[in-house]
Protein backbone atom coordinates (compact mmCIF):
# COMPACT_ATOMS: atom_id res chain seq x y z
CA UNK A 1 0.00 0.00 0.00
CA UNK A 2 1.08 3.57 -0.61
CA UNK A 3 0.47 6.02 2.23
CA UNK A 4 0.42 9.80 1.82
CA UNK A 5 0.74 11.57 5.17
CA UNK A 6 -0.56 15.09 5.80
CA UNK A 7 2.03 15.73 8.54
CA UNK A 8 0.95 19.36 8.87
CA UNK A 9 -2.44 18.04 10.01
CA UNK A 10 -1.69 14.84 11.96
CA UNK A 11 1.85 15.52 13.24
CA UNK A 12 3.56 12.53 14.89
CA UNK A 13 0.20 11.00 15.86
CA UNK A 14 -0.42 10.16 12.20
CA UNK A 15 2.78 8.12 12.09
CA UNK A 16 1.66 5.78 14.88
CA UNK A 17 1.91 2.29 13.45
CA UNK A 18 4.77 3.02 11.06
CA UNK A 19 6.62 0.08 12.59
CA UNK A 20 3.80 -2.20 11.31
CA UNK A 21 4.44 -1.35 7.64
CA UNK A 22 6.05 -4.01 5.49
CA UNK A 23 8.78 -3.86 2.89
CA UNK A 24 6.22 -3.58 0.05
CA UNK A 25 4.71 -0.43 1.60
CA UNK A 26 5.66 3.12 0.64
CA UNK A 27 5.10 6.13 2.84
CA UNK A 28 5.22 9.73 1.56
CA UNK A 29 5.38 12.27 4.37
CA UNK A 30 4.20 15.70 3.19
CA UNK A 31 5.48 18.46 5.46
CA UNK A 32 6.23 22.15 5.46
CA UNK A 33 9.41 23.84 6.66
CA UNK A 34 8.16 24.63 10.17
CA UNK A 35 6.05 21.50 10.50
CA UNK A 36 6.39 20.90 14.22
CA UNK A 37 8.11 18.44 16.47
CA UNK A 38 9.20 14.89 15.80
CA UNK A 39 10.26 12.99 18.93
CA UNK A 40 13.41 10.88 19.01
CA UNK A 41 11.23 7.83 19.66
CA UNK A 42 9.17 8.49 16.52
CA UNK A 43 12.33 9.24 14.51
CA UNK A 44 13.68 5.86 15.60
CA UNK A 45 10.44 4.12 14.52
CA UNK A 46 10.62 5.80 11.11
CA UNK A 47 14.22 4.77 10.51
CA UNK A 48 13.53 1.19 11.64
CA UNK A 49 10.41 0.82 9.48
CA UNK A 50 10.62 -1.77 6.71
CA UNK A 51 8.65 0.51 4.37
CA UNK A 52 10.23 2.86 1.87
CA UNK A 53 9.91 6.36 3.38
CA UNK A 54 9.94 9.52 1.26
CA UNK A 55 9.83 13.13 2.48
CA UNK A 56 8.02 15.70 0.37
CA UNK A 57 8.50 19.32 1.41
CA UNK A 58 5.43 21.29 0.35
CA UNK A 59 5.53 24.81 -1.01
CA UNK A 60 3.50 26.96 1.38
CA UNK A 61 2.12 30.46 1.55
CA UNK A 62 -1.56 29.88 0.79
CA UNK A 63 -4.40 28.19 2.63
CA UNK A 64 -4.47 24.40 2.09
CA UNK A 65 -1.31 24.50 -0.05
CA UNK A 66 0.01 21.21 1.33
CA UNK A 67 -3.38 19.50 0.80
CA UNK A 68 -3.49 20.54 -2.84
CA UNK A 69 0.06 19.30 -3.42
CA UNK A 70 -0.67 15.98 -1.70
CA UNK A 71 -3.79 15.38 -3.82
CA UNK A 72 -1.98 16.44 -6.97
CA UNK A 73 0.82 13.98 -6.21
CA UNK A 74 -1.77 11.27 -5.52
CA UNK A 75 -3.25 11.84 -8.98
CA UNK A 76 0.20 11.62 -10.55
CA UNK A 77 0.90 8.36 -8.72
CA UNK A 78 -2.46 6.89 -9.72
CA UNK A 79 -1.69 7.70 -13.36
CA UNK A 80 1.57 5.77 -13.02
CA UNK A 81 0.14 2.83 -11.00
CA UNK A 82 -3.69 2.71 -10.94
CA UNK A 83 -3.67 -0.87 -9.62
CA UNK A 84 -2.00 0.13 -6.33
CA UNK A 85 -3.86 0.73 -3.07
CA UNK A 86 -3.53 4.24 -1.62
CA UNK A 87 -4.33 5.71 1.79
CA UNK A 88 -4.26 9.37 2.85
CA UNK A 89 -3.42 9.91 6.51
CA UNK A 90 -5.08 13.08 7.79
CA UNK A 91 -7.72 14.38 10.20
CA UNK A 92 -9.10 16.47 7.33
CA UNK A 93 -12.48 14.93 6.41
CA UNK A 94 -12.28 16.41 2.88
CA UNK A 95 -9.88 13.58 1.98
CA UNK A 96 -12.81 11.17 2.37
CA UNK A 97 -14.30 12.86 -0.70
CA UNK A 98 -11.04 12.31 -2.56
CA UNK A 99 -11.28 8.62 -1.69
CA UNK A 100 -14.88 8.42 -2.96
CA UNK A 101 -13.93 10.23 -6.16
CA UNK A 102 -11.24 7.64 -6.95
CA UNK A 103 -13.38 4.69 -5.76
CA UNK A 104 -15.95 5.72 -8.40
CA UNK A 105 -13.16 5.33 -10.96
CA UNK A 106 -12.22 1.87 -9.64
CA UNK A 107 -9.05 3.06 -7.92
CA UNK A 108 -8.64 2.12 -4.28
CA UNK A 109 -8.06 5.23 -2.16
CA UNK A 110 -8.99 5.35 1.51
CA UNK A 111 -8.31 7.76 4.36
CA UNK A 112 -7.43 7.31 8.03
CA UNK A 113 -6.19 9.42 10.94
CA UNK A 114 -3.03 7.36 11.50
CA UNK A 115 -1.09 4.48 9.96
CA UNK A 116 -2.18 2.15 12.74
CA UNK A 117 -5.86 2.77 11.95
CA UNK A 118 -5.18 2.34 8.22
CA UNK A 119 -3.50 -1.02 8.86
CA UNK A 120 -6.44 -2.18 11.01
CA UNK A 121 -9.21 -1.13 8.65
CA UNK A 122 -7.84 -0.08 5.27
CA UNK A 123 -5.49 -2.78 4.06
CA UNK A 124 -6.99 -5.02 1.42
CA UNK A 125 -4.45 -7.79 1.88
CA UNK A 126 -1.72 -8.69 4.31
CA UNK A 127 1.74 -9.84 3.43
CA UNK A 128 3.35 -12.53 5.55
CA UNK A 129 7.07 -11.97 5.08
CA UNK A 130 8.04 -15.25 6.78
CA UNK A 131 5.92 -17.29 4.40
CA UNK A 132 6.63 -14.98 1.43
CA UNK A 133 2.97 -15.38 0.43
CA UNK A 134 0.08 -13.00 0.06
CA UNK A 135 -3.22 -13.98 1.62
CA UNK A 136 -6.56 -12.28 1.17
CA UNK A 137 -9.68 -11.68 3.23
CA UNK A 138 -12.05 -14.26 1.74
CA UNK A 139 -15.11 -12.24 2.82
CA UNK A 140 -14.07 -9.33 0.59
CA UNK A 141 -12.47 -11.04 -2.40
CA UNK A 142 -13.17 -14.23 -4.27
CA UNK A 143 -9.75 -14.54 -5.87
CA UNK A 144 -6.40 -12.77 -5.35
CA UNK A 145 -5.24 -10.03 -7.66
CA UNK A 146 -1.58 -10.17 -8.56
CA UNK A 147 0.20 -6.84 -8.16
CA UNK A 148 3.18 -6.00 -10.30
CA UNK A 149 6.27 -5.33 -8.17
CA UNK A 150 7.23 -1.68 -8.55
CA UNK A 151 10.71 -0.22 -8.44
CA UNK A 152 11.25 1.26 -4.96
CA UNK A 153 12.48 4.57 -6.34
CA UNK A 154 10.22 7.55 -5.90
CA UNK A 155 8.35 8.39 -9.11
CA UNK A 156 9.38 11.73 -10.59
CA UNK A 157 7.25 14.06 -12.72
CA UNK A 158 8.44 14.29 -16.30
CA UNK A 159 8.43 18.10 -16.49
CA UNK A 160 12.12 18.34 -17.38
CA UNK A 161 11.99 15.54 -19.95
CA UNK A 162 13.04 16.45 -23.49
CA UNK A 163 10.33 15.63 -26.05
CA UNK A 164 11.06 12.63 -28.24
CA UNK A 165 11.26 12.98 -32.00
CA UNK A 166 7.80 11.33 -32.24
CA UNK A 167 6.30 13.91 -29.87
CA UNK A 168 7.77 16.85 -31.78
CA UNK A 169 6.47 15.45 -35.09
CA UNK A 170 2.95 15.18 -33.60
CA UNK A 171 3.01 18.85 -32.60
Main beta sheet: 5 strands, parallel
Mean pLDDT: 80
- Look at the helices and sheets and give the structural class: alpha/beta
Question: Numbering strands along the chain, what is their spatial order in the largest sheet?
Answer: 3-2-1-4-5
What is the count of helical runs? 6
Outline the low-pLDDT stretches: 123-153, 158-165
Using the alpha-carbon principal axes, give the shape: globular
Alpha-carbon Rg, integer: 17 Å
Number of strand elements: 7
Distance from first to last alpha carbon = 38 Å
List SSEs in N-to-C order.
EHEHEHEHEHEEH
> What is the helix fraction of residues, given as a range?
25-40%
What would you say about this model in short?
The chain is α/β, with parallel strands linked by helices and about 170 residues long. Helix content is about 30%, strand content about 20%.
Description of the molecule:
The chain has six helices and seven strands. The protein has 171 residues and is α/β, with parallel strands linked by helices. The radius of gyration is 17 Å and the shape is globular.
Furnish the topology, listing elements before pairings.
Layout: E1 2-6, H1 7-10, E2 26-31, H2 40-48, E3 52-57, H3 65-80, E4 85-89, H4 94-103, E5 108-112, H5 115-121, E6 125-128, E7 133-136, H6 165-170
Parallel strand pairs: 1-2, 1-4, 2-3, 4-5
Antiparallel strand pairs: 6-7
Keywords:
five-stranded parallel beta sheet; 171 residues; 7 strands; two-stranded antiparallel ribbon; 6 helices; alpha/beta
